[in-house]
Each structure stands twice: as C-alpha cells, then as structure tokens.
Amino acid sequence: xxxxxxxxxxxxxxxxxxxxxxxxxxxxxxxxxxxxxxxxxxxxxxxxxxxxxxxxxxxxxxxxxxxxxxxxxxxxxxxxxxxxxxxxxxxxxxxxxxxxxxxxxxxxxxxxxxxxxx
Length: 118
Description:
Oligomer: single chain
Radius of gyration: 17 Å
Number of strands: 0
Largest sheet: none
Number of helices: 8
Helix content: over 70%
Shape: flat
Structural class: mainly alpha
C-alpha cells in the first residue's frame, strides 16, 4: 500500500509534467486521503521489511521515514518486554546489513522473485 500510493503520485507527476497544474488537485486529494485515512505505521513497517524495497537504495532513500513507523509498531507490541525489543532491533540490523541467513545466496536471489504478500 505504502509503495503503491507513492508510485501512483510519482507516475501522475511524470506523465503530466508539462501540465502539472491539471494534476495538482488530484495529487492533493491523494495526499489528504493518505494523511487522514490511509497512512499507518503498519504500512510503513511492511514496506521497510519488504526485501524488494529494503535492498533498493533508490527506493529506500526516498522513504527513510518508514523506519520510524517500524519502530513505533515494535514499541507498541513489545512495550513491556525490553529483551524482545532488543532482539528484534538486532534482527533488523542483520536484515538491513545482509548478515547471517539474510546474506545467503538463496535469500539474496529470491528478493525480487517472491510475490508481495507472501
């Protein structure tokens, strides 16, 4: 969801770059709906945890704020368990840095082959 909304806005702006004034009202509607109804930390979390996006520097550079959403979800669901929070953040570091099992050839090769939602 997170990526789809951002991709749709970028595509609209790209296609209508010569007549941005025409597309601006639609972008404003998307932004308002996103901010008021759709943006949730859970969407940001799933975006950050998706290998298709995580290891694409161009995408992640645009969406660095997703880490805050992930940490908010982590703190909400593990708030009374500091050891669990530490374990999860350690695993996040392994995931981000492609260490241990995240660095296995099979894992790396399947980053873009596994359909979203699985």
